[in-house]
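Dear all,

This email documents one entry for the complex benchmark we are building for the journal club exercise. For each entry we list the sequence lines for every component of the assembly. Then comes the predicted three-dimensional structure of the complex as a C-alpha cell string, followed by one or two observations. Please use this as the template for your own entries, and keep the labels exactly as they appear.
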Amino acid sequence: MSTLYLLIPLAAILVIIAIALFLWSIKSGQFEDMEGPGFRILMDDDEDLIPDDAKVKKKDSDKKDTEGN
Amino acid sequence: MSDKTQQSCFHCGLPVPQGSHYHVDIKGEDRDMCCHGCQAVAQAIVDGGMESFYDHREGPSRRPEDLIPEQLEKFDLYDQEKLQQNFVEVDESNVKTASLILEGITCAACVWLNERHVKALPGVLEFQVNYSTHRARVRWDDSQLQLSDILKAISAIGYIAHPFDTSRQEEIYKKERKLALRRLAVAGLGAMQVMMLAAALYAMDYDVGVDESMRDFFRWISMFLATPVIFYSAKSFFVTAWRDIKSRQLGMDVPVALAIGSAYSASVYTTIFGGPDVYFDSVCMFAFFLLSSRFLEMGARHRAGQAAEELIRLLPAVATRIRESNEDIVAVDELSPGDVLLVKPGETVPIDGHVLEGVSSVDESLLTGESMPCVKNAGDELTGGSVNVESPLTMQVDRVGEDTVVSGIVRLLDRAQTEKPSIARLADRVAAWFVFAILLIAAVVAYWWWQHDPAHAFAITLSVLVVTCPCALSLATPVAITAATGSLTKTGLVTTRGHALETLAKATHFVFDKTGTLTQGRLHLADVKTFNGMSKEQVLQLATLLESRSEHPVAMVLNKAAEKQAAMAIDSLISAPGKGVEAVIEGEVYRIGNLPFVTELAGELEGFEIHKTVTSVGMCRGNQWLAVFELEDEIRQQAADVINELKRSGITVALLSGDAKEAVSNTAEKLGISEYLYAQSPQQKLEYIRKLQVDGGVVAMVGDGVNDAPVLSGANVSFAMGSGTQLAHASADMVLLSEQLDHLVTGVTMARKTLTIIKQNLGWAIVYNLLALPLAASGMIAPWMAALGMSSSSLVVVVNALRLRKK
C-alpha cells in the first residue's frame, strides 16, 4: 500500500502536465475552428504534388468512377 | 446524373427559367444555369481548375447577386489609407493583414474553394478561412496587389467578402472563449482526478483495514487538486453572485456560489482538523458541469453576435467634397452645412442637402418605399441614403448629424426598440423567484436537521442546494434555441436576438412590405406591344442598342432585353434625365423613354390603354410609334406558396406598402392577400402594427428598407431581407440571408417545434426537481449522488434539444 504515497503524487503531477499541455494548445489557437480542419484533408489540393505520369492515370480512374455512377 | 427534365440550376439549385440559354461545361458535362450570375461564377470556378468543388460541396451554392460595375468599384474605396486605418494592420515593408467576413459559405468545400482561389493571386501571402465563424484572415503584399483585388476575386466565385474591425467584437470573443476553455480544462481534468480519489475514499468508509493516515493523505491530495478548480475555474460564479447580491437581485449564481463555497470550506476544515466527510469530488463535478453548460451557451451567444456583426459593413461613410475645384474624399462626420459635394452615378447620397448642378434620377426607395426613381433638378431636395442613378450631381449640404431624415428614422427606431415587449426580462424575474424558493427551502431543511440530527445537517443541506440547482431549468430554453438557430442559420435564416424563435412560434399575423420583400425590388420586362409592323425581336434589339449606355433602372432592364443589339451605328445620343434617351441612327431620330417624352415626338398613340400597375416605356422612330414595353417589379418565385402556407397554418397575412394604390392592390391580388394598405408612411405602418398588438395579435413583420426599420422594431418579431439596408438588419430579429421566402415557413415550423421542445424540457426539469427535492431533504441522497443527478438531468435536457439539429 505504501507505493500509493509515490503513485498518487505522480498521478497529480501527470494531471498538472496534462493541464499545461491543454492550456498551451488553447493559447496556440487550436480550438478556434473546431469544424474546418477535419474537412481540409478531404480536398484535392495536392495536384501539383502528383507526378505527371501518375496524374493521367488518376484522371482515367476518375472518369470510370463517374461513368459507374 | 444530369436529369434534363428536372431543370434546376447546377450552381444554385433554383429552377431554370423557361427558354434560358445559360450553361457551363463542368467536367465534360453540360450543366444548365439559371442566370448570368451563376454562369459567370461557375465559369470562373472551372477556369481556375477548381471543378472538384462541385464534388465536395454539401448543397447548392447561394445565387450570386448580379454585381454591377458600380458595386465592384465600391471595393476600391477599401484601398484608401484613411478607411484602412480601422481594419488593416501594416507590417514591415508593405505587408498588410486584414480580417474579412465571408458571406455565402455553406460547407467545407466553399472554404477550400475560397482558399485555393485567393491563394493563387500573386501577392497574397496567406489566406485562411475559419469554417466555424466564416471569418478569413488575409496577408498580402501591398506593392503587388490591392485589397480591392482580393475582394473582387472572391466575388468572382460567388461569395461576398468585406473587411471588418476585429477590435470591436472579434478580439473580445476570442479572449472570452479562450478563458472559458482554460477554466473548463482545469475543472475537467481536476474533477476527473478528484473523482478517482473520491472512489477510493468512499471505499475506505467500508474497509476498516485502511489506516487514517492514508485517508488523510488522499484528502490532502484531493484538496490540492480541487483548490485550482474552485479559485480559478469557479471564480466566475462567485463574481456574478457577489454582483447580484450587491445589486440586490437573486440570480442563478447565488445558490451555486453558496453550494460551492460552503462545501469547499467545510471540506478544507475537515481535511485539516479531521471529521467524517469531504465533498471535493461533488464540488469539482458540479463546477465542471456548470462550466460546460455555460460554455455551450456562450457559443450560442457568440454565434448570434457574429451574425449581427456581419451586418455592420464599414462602407461607405465617405463623401467626395469639392473645395476650390479640388475633389477629396472625406468622412461623412467631417461635413458641415454649406459644403459642396459630388455624387457620382451609383453612389449613395451621403447626407441631406439640395442639388446645385446637374439633373439626374434618384432612387429613394430605401427611404420612402417608392420603387421608381424620381427626377431631381437644380434646387431640389436630396435625402441622405438615397441613390443617385443616372448622372453626376453637385450638391450642397443643408443638414448634418441629428437633423437629417435618416437620423429621424433612427430616433423613431430607438423608441420602438425600447417599447419592445421583453420576454427575456420575464424569464429573469421567474428565475429570481425560483432561486429565492431554493434558498428558503435549503434554510428550512438546514434548520430542521440541525434540530434533529446536527451531524448530517450539512451534507443534507448541501444535497438540497446541488440537486435543485436550476441548471436543467436554466438550460432548457437556451439549449433548444441554440440548436434551432444553428440549423436555421444553415438554411440562411440568421437569428440575431434570443427571443425571436419563442415569439415567432406564437405569431398570429405576418405583415409584409412589398418592394424588395414580396417582390425582387427590381424591374423585369412583362410585356411588349409592337406597332407599325415591327417584330418583337426587332424592337427588343433596338431597345437594347438605344439603352446600352444608360444606367436608369428601367434602361438596365431594357439593355439586357435582347441577346444582341440591333446592328446599326448610333450617330449621336442624348439622354434626358428622368425622361429617356434620344438618338440619331442612320439619319433618323429615335426616342425611348416614358410615354409623355415619346408622345412629344411621335404624337398621341391611339387605341392604347395605359396600365397603371406597370411602368410603361415607349419607343418611336420620328413620328412613328414602334413599341410600348411594360415593366413590372417581379414577384419573388416562392411568394405565393409561402403566403398560402402561412395562411394554412392559421396566420393572418397582410401587406403594407409605401407604394401607390394600383401597384399594391395588383400585387396583393396576385398573391391572394385580402388585407393590404397602400401609401403608408413609417409612422402609419407602426400604428397599424400597434393596433394589431392592442387587439392581442403577435405580429411578425418582413421588410427591407430604412423606412421599415421602426416597424421592424415595433413588431413582436421581425425579418429583414439579406439584401436590405443596414438599418433594417440592425432593427430586425432575424435576417433572411438566403433571400428565399420559403425559409420563412421553415422558420415558423422550426420555431413551433422549438417551443414544444422547450416546454418538454421545462416540464422535465420541474418534475425532476419535484422528485429529487423531497429525497434530498429527507437525507436519502449523498452530495455526490446529487451532483450526478443534477448533471444527468441537464444531459437529458441537452439531448432532447439536440433533436432540433437533425434535418
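Observations: The two ends of chain A are 65 Å apart (CA to CA). Chain A has three helices and no strands.
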